[in-house]
Every structure is written in structure tokens, then in C-alpha cells.
């Protein structure tokens, strides 16, 4: 079995196999724009050489083959390396907030939700317009949110300038850095399944905290030592978690919407 054989096959979903040369690989098949966005994101995040990323061995319309990351565990030393590497990856930067990876589509994805990589000059306004309000309104259209709920989100968005902290340049974000998208192998943290774009570096850190990444305190401490974070970061975690919470509201409903609205109530006052 070769990469070309796997790319020529059909089917959706994720599978694992071994190439003729003994390389363990992951094969993904799905929506072409989603596969293209993931492949471009993996290549972009790999460029700085700061965080371990699976290698994209081949890509075709709606198909991608990448190297497989062996399973392992997180320890303090690996977490420290990952925190420093994440800081360096972010520092590699992006042309603008919302910019897609080179060759990546503007109409991209985060998980199973569509995500538009439209650009903006200042993070608070861009974040409200392109990462928060579209999903709040989609939740309303699905019947998960009421008109009053969306009005609350809009009031919170009006406060983003006041609560976002000092301006920062666009960072090279993974974009969907919840704990399940960090694999631990060989004493390193590896990132997979990106929704990569130019954004605020605190967003990746907040997403690590959303579902409880292992060794989180060690990761953040190493990050902060390598690239000091602005004062008040802990107070801004909810602001940066609002986007993934709203994405989860659209995809899964349930308690995610209530958590998002609680964040908005705090931000709006």
C-alpha cells in the first residue's frame, strides 16, 4: 500500500494503516474543504519547527494521508517543552486576525462546524464579528437560543474592547486546541486536527483549559516564562472560551449554551 493508493481510494472517516515501507499512517476522507483546511493547517503549524505536528504525506480532493502519532503520556518535562514550543509557534505569527494558512480555504471548519476565515485588524472587533456572533445567531436559528439570548451575546461583544487586555499581534493559532487534540508521545506534545488561523494567543491556552488538559499548569507556566502573558490573563479565560462554547452549542446544544450565556452575563456587566 502506498500513499497514492490511499489517496485514490474512496470513503469518508478516519482509518489507520501501514504503508509498504512500514510507516504508520492515518487516512482521512471527508468534506473536501475540511480536509484541505486541515492539511494546510498542519503544514503551517509545522513550519516554525516549534511543536510536533504529524507530517502530511499526501492530499487529494477530500483525502489526506499523514503520519500517525504513537500513544504516550504527559509528564512534567513533556509539558514544559510543549508550553515553550507553543509560545514559539504562536510567535511565528500570521498576516492578520482570521487569516487562513497559506493555501487553506477561507471557508474552513472547526470540528464539524463551518468557520469563515475573514480577516480583521483589531482582535476584539474581529472576534465579535467572525467568531462569536455568527454562532450565537446560528444557535438562535436552530432554536437553541432565544432572541434575548442573542441580545445578551451582543451586549457582551460591545464590551470586548474594554475587557480584552492590551493589543497583541496576530498569533499562529492551532485554533481548536482542546485536550483531545494534543497527543503525548516520545516526551513531546503533538498537535492534531487544527482549525488554524491568525488569532489571539490566549485563545489556544483557554481552549486547553476548557476540558482540562493534563499538566495544564506546567504548560502555561513554561509558556509564560518563554513569552510572558499580559497581566489579567486568568480574568480573560472566559472571553476566549466563548467561541468554542458557542461552537459546541451549535453542534451539541445542551449545557454548552448555558455556559456560554453565563460567560456573556459576566462580560456584559
TrEMBL record:
Belongs to the fructosamine kinase family. InterPro entries: Fructo-/Ketosamine-3-kinase, Kinase-like_dom_sf. Gene3D superfamilies: 1.20.1270.240, Phosphorylase Kinase, domain 1, Transferase(Phosphotransferase) domain 1. Keywords: Kinase, Transferase. GO terms for molecular function: kinase activity. This is Fructosamine kinase family protein. Pfam families: Fructosamin_kin (PF03881).
Amino acid at each position: 500500500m502506498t500513499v497514492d493508493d490511499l489517496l485514490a481510494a474512496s470513503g469518508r472517516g478516519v482509518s489507520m494503516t501501514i504503508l509498504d515501507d512500514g510507516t504508520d499512517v492515518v487516512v482521512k476522507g471527508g468534506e473536501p474543504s475540511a480536509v484541505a483546511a486541515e492539511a494546510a493547517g498542519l503544514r503551517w503549524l509545522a513550519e516554525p519547527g516549534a511543536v510536533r505536528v504529524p507530517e502530511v504525506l499526501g492530499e487529494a480532493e477530500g483525502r489526506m494521508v499523514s503520519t500517525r502519532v504513537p500513544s504516550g503520556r504527559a509528564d512534567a518535562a513533556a509539558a514544559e517543552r510543549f508550553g515553550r514550543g507553543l509560545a514559539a509557534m504562536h510567535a511565528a505569527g500570521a498576516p492578520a486576525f482570521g487569516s487562513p494558512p497559506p493555501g487553506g480555504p477561507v471557508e474552513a471548519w472547526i470540528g464539524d462546524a463551518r468557520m469563515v476565515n475573514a480577516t480583521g485588524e483589531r482582535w476584539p472587533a474581529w472576534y465579535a464579528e467572525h467568531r462569536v456572533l455568527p454562532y450565537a445567531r446560528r444557535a438562535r436559528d436552530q432554536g437553541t437560543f432565544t432572541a434575548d439570548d442573542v441580545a445578551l451575546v451582543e451586549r457582551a461583544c460591545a464590551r470586548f474592547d474594554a475587557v480584552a487586555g492590551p493589543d497583541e499581534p496576530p498569533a499562529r493559532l492551532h485554533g481548536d486546541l482542546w485536550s483531545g487534540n494534543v497527543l503525548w508521545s516520545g516526551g513531546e506534545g503533538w498537535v492534531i486536527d487544527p482549525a488554524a488561523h491568525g488569532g489571539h494567543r490566549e485563545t489556544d491556552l483557554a481552549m486547553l483549559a476548557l476540558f482540562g488538559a493534563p499538566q495544564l499548569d506546567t504548560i502555561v507556566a513554561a509558556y509564560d516564562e518563554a513569552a510572558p502573558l499580559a497581566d489579567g490573563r486568568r480574568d480573560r479565560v472566559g472571553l476566549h472560551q466563548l467561541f468554542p462554547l458557542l461552537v459546541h452549542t451549535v453542534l451539541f446544544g445542551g449545557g454548552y449554551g448555558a455556559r456560554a450565556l453565563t460567560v456573556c452575563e459576566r462580560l456584559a456587566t
